[in-house]
């Protein structure tokens, strides 16, 4: 948040015309039905709390702003490489897999950012961006396996057992002086099993924006 505050203060000092802040739908916490931009904050993790504080700083700094909240972004990065690797190895489904797992493709996020840049309709507004469909965690895993051409695991692990294993893995890794595996961390489990579904109606109504990609296409 200190970095965000520095940017906000310098933007005001130099009369910047617009701050575009990359937010996260995580500031709303768990959402079991499509969440709109005006829902109250309900962050759970340290990351989500920091994004909430960042939003508040931007809103209060006196510079015209646009906040873009995304769900988890699909794109070519280390996290997704590890997820695909885990799928190939038959990593079990955590819990029942029936929670909403709303994602968004990186190209749709970039399209949104370009659309709001210098757009008067977007000033002092918050918008959500997400994929066209709202699959469950199990459905996303199934899509990944189908696209990779691998057989999906039939194994399911109770959440309590998954969290216990994560805790033990983290302790062992620290004792060995190593970083815990990202996909085995508590925060990663939280992201997998939490209901996450957001509404993109405002972006369509105000900006005429609609996502191009569904989860499988992404």
Poorly predicted ranges (pLDDT <50, ≥5 residues)? none
How many DSSP helices?
8
String of helices and strands: HEHEEHEEHEHEHHH
* Class computed from helices, strands and strand pairing: alpha/beta
From the spread of the alpha carbons, the general shape counts as: globular
Key attributes of the depicted protein:
single chain, 218 residues, alpha/beta, two-stranded parallel ribbon, 8 helices, 7 strands, 12% strand
Describe this structure in words.
The chain has 218 residues and is α/β, with parallel strands linked by helices. It contains eight helices and seven strands. The protein has a three-stranded parallel beta sheet with strand order 1-2-6, with helices on both faces. A two-stranded parallel ribbon has the order 3-5. A two-stranded parallel ribbon has the order 4-7. Helix 2 links the parallel strand 1 and strand 2. The longest helix has 17 residues. It is globular and about 55 Å long. The relative contact order is 0.19.
